[in-house]
Design a protein that fits this description.
By secondary structure, the chain is an all-alpha fold. The chain has helices at residues 2-16, 21-42, 52-75, 77-89, 96-110, 112-124, 126-132, 151-155, 170-206, 211-248, 255-263, 273-278, 296-306, 309-315; strands spanning 286-288, 291-293. The chain has a two-stranded antiparallel ribbon with strand order 1-2. The protein starts with a helix and ends in a 5-residue tail after the last helix. Mean pLDDT is 80; it is low at 1-19.
Length: 320
């Protein structure tokens, strides 16, 4: 049973960490849909009070979208590559094109969840109805009682907490505001769709790589990251085992860990900080004598095989 659960967990982990951007973005969008639906059912409660309605409605749409955007930026590996680039090399070799490409990648991925939240909020209409109800002009509705033509009464319409004389106007006001909300939602969908299409066209037109090579590059980066992380975990475990053994005189290892230590006897004991710095940071596609270099690690490995220490010292500081 434990093995079965482990296999299912491994499958789920691989699925959610899929290198396919479409699947990954789709999962983010589905999660946002679920969150938005749960919020509207269990948490949304319009205050039905002048001035508070507008703030609450805007907060219900904007604050979760902002939080999703910040989380998306934080979870993007390119963000921290960019931070490392600025910290290690002060962005001295950072061209405008490189900055635009990296920032576009970070922002584009981070916008999936907030845009989904905002569109769903507008299509559902509850937040918009709450926010704008107090600004509806009662004179635009036929036979609306003059006595109740004030902002305080209009702000109470989303809760149906209004005098009986004006309650029949609730359906018309709700229908009008929901129409406006959904119209804004569909306009946002259209603008975002056109923007994404144009950005993809611009990306492929400005790229020096063909479609197949770009797909290979994406596959390489995904595989390199997976293998690097797996190897780094194993290397850190070996280093930890050596440290524990030097302190206690022995180390308690499981059979798999003993096999790992036996297989990795030739592993480097220490990796200088300079070497870590050379493979860390932002990177865009480059070539060395016509040969593609797909990452900082790939470039470091290429120059290392050539024994070109000068190139390692100089070229590794270049972004693109």
């Amino acid at each position: 049973m434990a093995a079965l659960l482990a296999e299912h967990f491994k499958f789920a982990s691989l699925f959610f960490k899929s290198k396919d951007v479409v699947i990954f973005n789709g999962l983010i969008a589905l999660g946002t849909v679920a969150s938005q639906t749960a919020y509207n059912i269990f948490a949304f409660e319009c205050p039905c009070s002048p001035e508070r309605n507008y703030l609450y409605g805007l907060a219900a749409i904007g604050v979760p979208a902002l939080a999703f955007f910040i989380i998306g930026v934080m979870l993007n590996r390119n963000t921290w590559d960019l931070v490392s680039e600025c910290r290690l090399r002060r962005c001295q070799k950072f061209s405008g094109a490189a900055a635009f490409a990296l920032l576009g990648s970070i922002v584009g991925r981070a916008l999936v969840a907030p845009v989904t939240w905002s569109v769903l909020s507008l299509l559902r209409g509850e937040a918009y109805v709450c926010a704008i109800s107090e600004f509806v002009d009662p004179q635009s509705m036929e036979n609306f009682p003059v006595t109740y033509q004030n902002q305080k009464i209009m702000a109470r319409f989303p809760c149906k907490d209004v005098p009986a004389e004006v309650l029949p106007f609730y359906a018309e006001i709700h229908r009008r505001l929901k129409y406006e909300s959904q119209l804004l939602g569909w306009l946002l969908v259209g603008v975002i769709s056109i923007g994404v299409f144009l950005m993809l066209c611009l990306k492929h037109c400005c790229s020096s790589l063909g479609y197949q090579q770009e797909a290979y590059w994406a596959s390489y980066r995904s595989n390199e990251q997976t293998l690097f992380q797996r190897t780094a975990d194993a290397h850190s475990k070996i280093q930890a085992a050596e440290s524990v053994k030097s302190f206690f005189g022995f180390v308690a290892l499981e059979s798999e860990e003993k096999d790992l230590l036996a297989k990795c006897q030739g592993a480097k004991s220490d990796i200088p900080s300079m070497e870590w710095g050379r493979i860390t940071g932002a990177y865009l596609y480059r070539e060395n004598k016509g040969a593609p270099l797909y990452s900082r690690l790939n470039k470091w490995s290429s120059y290392k095989k050539e024994g070109n220490n000068k190139a390692i010292a100089e070229e590794m500081d270049m972004l693109c």
